[in-house]
From TrEMBL:
Gene Ontology cellular-component terms listed: membrane
Chain segments annotated as coiled-coil in the UniProt record: none
Name of the featured protein: Wall-associated receptor kinase galacturonan-binding domain-containing protein
Pfam family, any one: GUB_WAK_bind
Leader peptide range in chain numbering: 1-28
The entry's keywords: Signal
Recorded topology in the membrane: Single-pass membrane protein
Hydrolase as UniProt keyword: no
MF terms in GO: polysaccharide binding
Source species taxonomy: Eukaryota, Viridiplantae, Streptophyta, Embryophyta, Tracheophyta
UniProt domain Wall-associated receptor kinase galacturonan-binding: residue ranges: 46-84
Location(s) in or outside the cell: Membrane
Length: 307
């Protein structure tokens, strides 16, 4: 009797685990990359790559190659390899629901007397009328021992967030743990398209901590890609460059402005065969096209998703 009961409970646990896994797959619309692997990635006759980045429709390079003005990519040939840009942002990679852009890190450094020796403020804008917004998989991160950082977004939504990071001795700082001692992280609200940082000293311009922490850094970036290395990050003169190179800013995209039913009745629905229209969940109006179960490829281009 007990044995059967245990088996039942065990099966129940397995079912629960499977259900949970499916649920988390369904909601983790983050890193699906099938659109750039479709047989037809771009419109016929359009440039498929810029440097080593594949550009999937609705994005495109050149007239007739993108869905609407928001999706126009310029391929900047003044660097080697050439770099794709959307507005002034450098795009590193496109996925089915997001794109990653080269990040910026704000910094402020002091000398032993507490004078500021280096100051790099940051602001980033994905365009207030675009169908793009910062993914909530980005967190706002502050590194330092005598610092606060404000995260400001003034246009669309009036949002101010922030962090404080304090410590007195290097021994207090825990390698790998960003939890307020030497490193602080906060999440951001949905639908943000603009932010700027403002950093400053909490106590006395790093004078007491200068020997192991001369600078403060603040940035918005993909949380999963960042690991705090404790005091060795404070002392790394390359921290800013390294973080800009390794922690991208993740941007959500949808096909702009109309809901699925509005687009359908206006006759402008972009979803092709074997795909389904899904309403935007990014907080920005619009929709996405997603291949039906068992199909994959390019939902935005004829002949649609393939079995
Ligand atoms: C790619 O696009 C061309 C032109 O629209 C079309 O003829 C062809 O069937 C497409 N190929 C695939 C594999 O979808
Ligand atoms: C493009 O090249 C850079 C540097 O060579 C590399 O780091 C990056 O992973 C490449 N991106 C893709 C999508 O292959
Ligand atoms: C192209 O890239 C160069 C070097 O990275 C940069 O100076 C220039 O502003 C870029 N061009 C445009 C149109 O953004
Ligand atoms: C540096 O700080 C000292 C002490 O606060 C001050 O007297 C001096 O004017 C500062 N120097 C500069 C270049 O700001
Ligand atoms: C945000 O606040 C500023 C300053 O108070 C104001 O000028 C602006 O209109 C506000 N923006 C929104 C979208 O509420
Ligand atoms: C921090 O932890 C990582 C991973 O555990 C390790 O590789 C690294 O050497 C550590 N750094 C310091 C400064 O202790
Ligand atoms: C960081 O990158 C910039 C631009 O590529 C370069 O000029 C600077 O020397 C780099 N800093 C360090 C510490 O490597
Ligand atoms: C959405 O509609 C507004 C108002 O008509 C317009 O200003 C904006 O450019 C549109 N955005 C997109 C992505 O189509």
């Amino acid at each position: 009797m007990n044995f059967t009961k245990n088996i039942c409970f065990f099966l129940f646990l397995i079912l629960l685990a499977i259900t949970l896994q499916f649920t988390s797959q369904a909601t983790a619309l983050g890193d699906v990359i099938t659109i750039t692997k479709a047989a037809n990635v771009t419109k016929p006759g359009c440039q498929t790559e810029c440097g080593n980045v594949t550009i999937p429709f609705p994005f495109g390079i050149g007239p007739g190659c993108f869905l609407s003005q928001w999706f126009e990519i310029t391929c900047n040939a003044s660097s080697n390899p050439p770099r794709p840009q959307i507005g002034r942002l450098e795009v590193l990679e496109f996925t089915d629901y997001t794109f990653r852009v080269r990040n910026k890190v704000a910094s402020q450094c002091y000398d032993q007397l507490g004078n500021i020796t280096e100051e790099n403020p940051v602001s980033t804008n994905v365009g207030l009328t675009t169908p793009f917004s910062f993914s909530q998989k980005n967190h706002f991160t502050l590194i330092g021992c005598d610092d606060f950082a404000l995260f400001l977004s003034r246009f669309q939504v009036n949002f101010t967030g922030g962090c404080t990071a304090l410590c007195l001795k290097p021994e207090e700082v825990v390698n790998g743990s960003c939890s307020g001692v030497g490193c602080c992280q906060t999440s951001i609200p949905k639908a943000l398209k603009y932010y700027s940082t403002s950093v400053g000293s909490m106590v006395n311009n790093h004078i007491k901590v200068w020997s192991f922490d001369p600078c403060t850094y603040a940035f918005l970036g993909e949380q999963e890609r960042f690991t705090f290395n404790g005091v060795s990050d404070f002392m790394d003169p390359n921290f800013r460059n390294r973080t800009m190179a390794s922690v991208p800013l993740l941007v959500d995209w949808v096909v702009g402005n109309l809901s699925c039913s509005e687009a359908r009745s206006a006759g402008v629905l972009a979803c092709q065969a074997n795909s389904e229209c899904v309403e935007s969940d990014t907080g920005v109006p619009g929709y996405r096209c997603i291949c039906n179960n068992g199909y994959h490829g390019q939902p935005y281009l004829e002949p649609g998703c393939q079995g």
